[in-house]
Amino acid sequence: MSDPLWKLDAFVEAAGGGIKGDAGAEITGISIDSRSLEPGDAFVAIKGDRLDGHDYVSAALEAGASLALVAESRLVDLPEDGRYVVVPDPLEALRCIGIAARARTHARVIAVTGSVGKTGTKEALRLTLEQSGKVHASVASFNNHWGVPLTLARMPADTDYGVFEIGMNHAGEITPLVKMVRPHVAIITTVQAVHLEFFDSVEKIAQAKAEIFDGLEPGGIAILNKDNRQFDLLRFLAATAGVSVVQTFGEDQSADSHTENVISFAGGSSVDATILGTEITYKIGAPGKHLVKNSLAVLTAVADVGADLAKAGLVLDGMRAPKGRGEVSQLMLQGGELSLIDESYNANPASMRAAIAVLGAVPIARPARRIAVIGDMRELGADADRLHADLLTPILEAQIDAVYCAGPHMHALWDQLPHELRAHYCEDAKDLEDVILKDVRPGDVVMIKGSLGTRMGPLVTALKKEYPPADDTAAA
What we know:
476 residues, alpha/beta, Udp-n-acetylmuramoylalanyl-d-glutamate--2,6- Diaminopimelate Ligase, Chain: A, domain 1, UDP-N-acetylmuramoyl-L-alanine:D-glutamate ligase, Protein-Tyrosine Phosphatase, Chain A, 3 domains, nine-stranded mixed beta sheet, six-stranded mixed beta sheet, globular, disordered C terminus
């Protein structure tokens, strides 16, 4: 039987709180969602913008929570016979628990940020490091002011490798998070034109991403994309922050870790690379040039934390794109199959270009088509229309056959598209559903992408409902 995540006395001390009621002596997990809570978890009642966790304390206790971490000011609203750890502010207490979890472990810790590719890089690190020890990593995209401390608080004391995704959309957000995480290695995947609604320039975005250097442990390593236009600025900011070791990755042959040869195929890539002077050949089980480049950062970090590089390279062949982030499904149509690339989770100019390039690289047999179904990219500020119109070039380069557009900003692209590429335009993504379901045919490859607020995900759901995936059909 494995040790509990926290003993009650250590948890209470870390939280800086007091006990009320018969709290469980052992805590097996930490949850902020009463719906997914497992018996033995501590439930942390966080107050968010829309919901207040205190409203769900009763449900959490009934589901078997060992205790609820609650605000003293809300005790009067909670069941009198509950089991509580009482603090002034549950979110601040969660931060303190996260800091205590980081202090008690001897794990080698890696932090990942960047405009694009954070989650994929984090998942690749999880996959590769599992070959060498016990890994604890962020779930989903838990990369903000509550996601990072929650991930830290959930880290077992005997973890060998910790992997943390750190996000931001305003300056100053990364610094407090990375100072909690205290990584030995920090990766910046790339800096691109995202969140321009909140920044004056891409250079300002680079400065915000460079906050990740503020929390590096003494002697820590920064891994930077040498092909990125902001590389020189990031290297300067690393030096200014006192980072003594900067390693680079990219296609540039002078990078510390670089590709020698890449062969792309429908399901992924075969890569010959040099990682910090060591030659290695490996396959990646998901398509995309961006995944190839980020794999260099992954393997560099693997080597830096002392894990097995050869084993790491071997398991990248098992890497798969997650739902909403490049997941590929084969849907059954009458007369054949349709390939669906689900990129619906989010979008910015860099990730949109990468997704279009992936679509363009998929081989097809005519008269089948490459179809891009794309929705507005959010948080681009005054340049939004121009950045949408600029997608014309990658669409033409990828030899896309039909483009469906959703959202007011996408009209700037629609106006630029050649007439023969215009499939359908509407301001609301939901109005594309019936059109796409009727238009697709066997052999087509369809890529769906847009910012989360544009709601492209339901289009993926609708296609899968109308034309069930081949593996689901086989299972049935």
